[in-house]
Design goal:
By secondary structure, this protein is α+β, with helices and mostly antiparallel strands. The protein contains 5 helices and 6 strands; from the N terminus they run E-E-E-E-E-H-H-E-H-H-H. The strands form 2 sheets. Strands 1-2-3 form a 3-stranded antiparallel beta sheet, with no helix packed on it. A 3-stranded mixed beta sheet has the order 5-4-6. A hairpin with a 5-residue loop joins strand 4 and strand 5. The relative contact order is 0.10.
């Protein structure tokens, strides 16, 4: 790590702390040459493999942008979308892979989106699960209805 003040090629770590979300480490450093102190933030990089084969860094903003289209006209807030993007990033990082296929990210969005808004889920799923016909939509809606029935049966009657 180069000192931002004198460009010396070494520094000493004085303090290390994990961020609140656990995804990064904040390190307080001191330059042995000039004595200047500075902070670095270290995160594990996560690459996304696009269909073209190009690898680019994971971006929560891109997750939000893609899901926002599916949520258009639905009662979903920006805070809801930010939380969904965080959940997706955490799920993707838990796979332990440093690079993940873009389609896998799309599929990992489905679970949290289904819990957030079922209509937006159907819109998004129609793209990422490649719905080809009305039967695909009917099947997805049937699955949602079956889940609702299971929840209703599990709830105790008052």
């Amino acid at each position: 790590m180069h000192c931002p003040f004198c460009r010396h090629s070494d520094s000493r770590v004085i303090d290390s702390r994990t961020s609140d979300d656990g995804l990064s480490i904040r390190r307080r450093r001191q330059c042995p040459e000039c004595g200047g102190r500075f902070t670095t933030l270290e995160t594990a990089s996560l690459g996304v493999i696009k269909r073209s084969g190009v690898v680019e860094p994971f971006s929560r903003d891109k997750v939000v942008a893609g899901v926002r289209k599916a949520c258009q006209g639905r009662p979903v807030t920006d805070g809801d979308l930010a939380l969904l993007a965080q959940q997706v990033e955490e799920a993707v990082r838990q796979t332990g892979q440093s690079q993940i296929d873009a389609n896998e990210i799309g599929l990992s969005i489905l679970g949290p989106l289904r819990a957030l808004d079922e209509v937006a889920y159907l819109r998004f799923a129609s793209v990422y699960q490649a719905f080809d016909s009305l039967e695909d939509f009917e099947s997805a809606i049937g699955d949602l209805r079956a889940d609702h029935e299971r929840v209703a049966e599990a709830e105790p009657e008052l």
